[in-house]
Design brief:
Oligomer: single chain
Low-confidence stretches: none
Mean pLDDT: 95
Largest sheet: 8 strands, mixed
Shape: globular
Strand content: 15-25%
Structural class: alpha/beta
Order of helices and strands: EEHEHEEHEHEEHEHEHE
Helix content: 25-40%
Number of domains: 1
CATH topology: Rossmann fold
């Protein structure tokens, strides 16, 4: 099923795998189009188990010239080293960054002594490079990256910042199997902010699973508000949402 909510293109599939394959095909199409127009392309990836089926299918796309793609990611826990399995850098290295010959991989090294400087440096890099395409998800509170209400701002002046993580957002990491208990989840992270997402040319948002059904409903059927940061996708000129039967289960329009 396909329909639009404001400007957002919504696509619903019977299963996570079908959703991931369809999202990967659309992302691959866009990457090939961008590479036909530019010598190199800047792409940002989300790091979460929700992205697994999409990334696996994307890796199988033989059309893409990865050597002309600069890779970025959107968030990292403060104080977590890259060799820990909970690190988002670690996830992306394992699932895509180490598996393709990217032109460059630009990481948020949040385990250093000065998290604010890391955030400022990454914001400067994003401003210099610009983002052509982002592959993202939506969190259980409707957050994108770690732009978690009430700290999420549509008009945030910084492109990356240090943020205090809310309990629901931290609990999602337990639900995802990344941490054993809430107390194990760090309380701070560096995140790319909402204006960086809005500035990207093309957005592909992949959101499977029953734990995301309330966030999906709020994103598509609630008001556009910072209380549900993902609603900003409805204002973007080239944004696409891919959901499965489980994450779409509370929608007025879904599949049986």
């Amino acid at each position: 099923m396909q329909y639009k909510v404001d400007k957002l293109d919504v696509n619903i599939y019977p299963s996570n795998r079908e959703m991931g394959q369809a999202a990967a095909k659309a992302i691959g199409d866009d990457l090939c189009d961008l590479l036909s127009k530019k010598s190199e392309v800047n792409v940002m990836f989300a790091a979460a188990p929700s992205q697994n089926t999409t990334l696996e299918a994307l890796l199988d796309d033989k059309r893409i010239d990865w050597s002309r793609i600069n890779a970025f990611h959107m968030d990292e826990y403060v104080g977590i080293s890259i060799d820990r399995p909970q690190s988002f850098r670690n996830y992306l290295k394992v699932h895509i960054f180490d598996r393709k010959p990217f032109k460059s991989v630009n990481l948020i090294n949040a385990d250093g002594p000065d998290a604010q400087k890391v955030a400022d440096d990454y914001a400067r890099l994003l401003k210099e490079r610009g983002l052509d395409l982002i592959v993202l998800g939506i969190g259980e509170t409707g957050h994108i990256a770690f732009n978690d209400p009430p700290e999420a701002r549509f008009n945030e002046p910084k492109l990356a910042k240090v943020i205090e993580l809310g309990e629901v957002s931290r609990m999602q990491q337990v639900h995802d199997g990344c941490f054993a208990t809430l107390d194990d989840v760090p309380k701070q992270a560096i995140t790319v902010t909402i204006p960086a997402f809005v500035a990207a040319s093309r957005l592909h948002c992949v959101v499977p699973g029953p734990t995301k059904c309330k966030a999906v409903k709020a994103t598509l059927e609630g008001p556009v508000t910072e209380d549900c940061p993902a609603t900003v996708l409805r204002l973007h000129d080239n944004a696409h949402l891919y959901i499965d039967k489980d994450s779409a289960s509370l929608l007025k329009r879904t599949i049986s």
